[in-house]
Amino acid sequence: MAKGKLVVIFRSGGNFTLSDDGSLSYCGEEAHATSINTESKFDELKAEVAEMWNYDPDSLIIKYFLPHNNKKLITVSNDKDLQHLLDFHGNSATVDVYVSTNENQTSDQLTMSHSRSRMVDEPVTPTSITHAASISRDTDTPNNSIPEAHNANALQKLVKSWDNCLTGLEQWFNNAHDFRAALNKFSIAHGFEYTFKTNKSRYIIAKCSAEGCHWTIKAARLSTTKLFVIKKMSETHTCGAGKSSSRHPKVSSKLVKFLVKEKLRHSPNANPREIINGILQDYGIEARYAHVWRELESAKETPQVPRDEGYNQLPSLFKQIIENNPGSIATLITREDLSFHLLFVALQASLHGFKNGCRPLLFLDAMTIKSKYQSELLTATALDGNEGIFPVAFAVVDVVNDDNWHWFLVQLKSALSIFQPVTFVADRQLGLRKPISMIFKNSHHGYCLHHLIEGLKRDFNGLCTEEVLQVIITHFYDAARATTLDGFRKSIEYIRNISPEACEWIMQSGPEHWSNVLFQGSRYGHFSSNVAETLYSWVTELPVIPIAKLIETICCKIMELMSTQKSDSSQWLTKLTPAVEFKLEQHILRANMLQVPVSHGSTFEVCDSLGAIYVVNIDLWDCSCREWQLKGFPCCHAVAVLQQLGRSLYEYCSEYFTVGAFRSTYSNSINPVATANIAVQKKSSKIEVRPPALRHVSDTPKRKKKKYTHKGPFKRLLHCSKCHGAGHNRQTCHLFS
User: Fold this and answer.
1) How far apart are CA 503 and CA 494, in angstroms?
2) Which residues contact 441 (CB under 8 A, 6 or more apart)?
3) 134 — alpha (psi -120 to 50), left (phi > 0) or beta?
4) Per-residue pLDDT tens for 327-368?
5) Average model confidence (pLDDT) for the chain?
6) Pfam families from the xrefs (predicted)?
7) Helix, strand, or coil (residue 56)
């Protein structure tokens, strides 16, 4: 929300539809937009909304959804409610608000009740929320009524599903944690408390806490495995627990604790207030802030579920990804001992978006996943027409090496099924043994400038002062970004005069892979491979979570990104995307200071205020400054020519920057997947995937990497006067032959 403002899209005249999962969707409406801030007043806003549709201001009913919760509508009726709307959606660019009138309301309304939080230490009871909204189901009869206390029904359904968590003797569980979790749910569903007589890693004995009750259960670990099996379980409670199934389950602190943990599993970065609101909206239960806070603090110390549980969930999760999103690719590879080795995921919406709207430009990067097991995340990311990050595919591998990168690229090539040349921006080390061109024919590998400069810093740390090294790096950047050979040579000569050794290092690093003037691919002005960090940086900030939950979270993030971008672009009215429109406007301003004195057919000479002359060919989309060719839209010199000819600038911009291409990029949606939908594995289940090796932490200090040094006098090498490369002269220069 920029500068305290929030764009509000008011929608009216449509109907709500209730889906099977209880979420609401709105369609068939007319929409208007305005903006609000902390100074906005409800009465003024209500008057503005009434004017939009010619409604009576006193009859208006205004509602909205909380973030990531499309099941309950919140009413705005005063200034305080309006401030709450701003607080809840403060991190959003826009928010949908639904407008109706009293005349449109019928007896078939969604009614639930809402009360304040209890501040005393007593069993928590379901509360209710009262809001009004016209709901219509997808049935023959419109506007079917929704039962009251919908949230209480959701709670009852949840607890009812735990009735058979424990079925009796010889029931198997993956580990002790799974057994304890099942026992906890079983006790909530059947309304009894229990205590552990023995609670060890090898066997567990629990008994009913009621005085005089003889109900007990015993489970033990199978030798040489982590599997737990029930060895003894009483059939009934002598205290009477479990005999009558209450329609309204007792909402104990134990149940609230479980609900808090479930919320943490789905939203590990949520704060206490967000969790409290989520439980309130889903189940009508008000959890105490202190209780939620304690659970959050506990989660920082230990993961909510065992880390190895997630690996065996991967096959089921991948099956769900493919079934819910036809056309997606989810590949899992294990070693001979069933330990995890590699996985690859490319969602159909991402593949479609890249092939139909993105430039043939991919950024490859890797980052470490927080885990006690060896696991690294590999990503292939593109850019949309608005210079936004567009995730194409990702992989998790047990170790980053050439073989695993090669496997990732083979999977990526198969998933994309394209034959046009692709430009990759990646670390130079990625292609030393197995070049990218082995897999993607006619592709180009642009070296990541960030990684190159980090390598230069390491090798020359101590050989140059920090100030001198910074000057060298500045000229290094200038050489990379130079659009003409003269500009490149000038920057390289500056470096040579400062440090011949640094100049040699730079020229031997493959300038044909990182300099604009020598690179044969199309990078559109991008030099760093870590563009995906803004999308995947949260991976390194997460607490340690199971691998299956991590994959689910990544898919969810991509789903949210696709939905948000699709919604935002529906409001655009320009020919080009906003980012490119802005850049083109800057070029138009600069073009006003240029002169176009000479023309020869489609070729024009353009003069700037310093007397420099640039040659523009509008048929070839070419300018001697090379910015038009490098970036895909007219430079200021081309703009000056096109404006003088009265031509439309849009006709000379790459199709990738049009709003139409952007909408094609995000045209397909992603259906959700969830590890919560994967059933607890029973006796017949088998271990399909085991965790990989533990991450090795050496007790010995790492040896310092050997710095770039010379023994004896520095030997002067041959330098090419054309490209300034080392080890050859102008007669043998392969770059200009």
Assistant:
1) 9
2) none
3) beta
4) 999 999 998 888 899 999 999 999 999 999 999 999 999 988
5) 79
6) DBD_Tnp_Mut, MULE, PB1, SWIM
7) coil
Give the whole-angstrom CA distance, residue 415 versus residue 113: 50
Could you write out the DSSP letters of every residue in 674-699?
-GGGSPPP-TT-----B--PBPP--S
| Percent of the chain whose pLDDT exceeds 70 | 77
H/E element holding 406? helix 402-416
Say how many C-beta atoms besides its own lie within 10 A of residue 493's C-beta.
Answer: 14
Using DSSP, state whether 219 is helix, strand or coil.
Answer: strand
pLDDT digits (tens, 9 = 90+) for 621-678: 999 999 999 999 999 999 999 999 999 999 999 999 999 999 999 999 998 887 655 5
Identify residue 565 by its one-letter amino acid code. Q
Q: Which residue has the tokens 């890249």?
A: 354
Reference 338, options 686, 690, 685; nearest CA is 690
Q: How far is CA 177 from CA 169, 180, 679, in A?
A: 18, 5, 15
8 A C-beta contact, residue 675 and residue 546: yes
Radius of gyration, alpha carbons of the chain: 32
Give the DSSP letter of residue 3: G
Tens-place pLDDT, residues 6-59 = 888 888 888 877 776 667 888 767 888 888 888 888 888 888 888 888 888 888
Measured in whole angstroms, how far is the alpha carbon of residue 145 from the centre of its chain? 37
CA separation for the pair 444, 421 (Å, rounded): 8
Taking the C-alpha atoms of residue 183 and residue 215, their distance in angstroms, rounded to an integer, is 13
Position of tokens 């430079």? 635
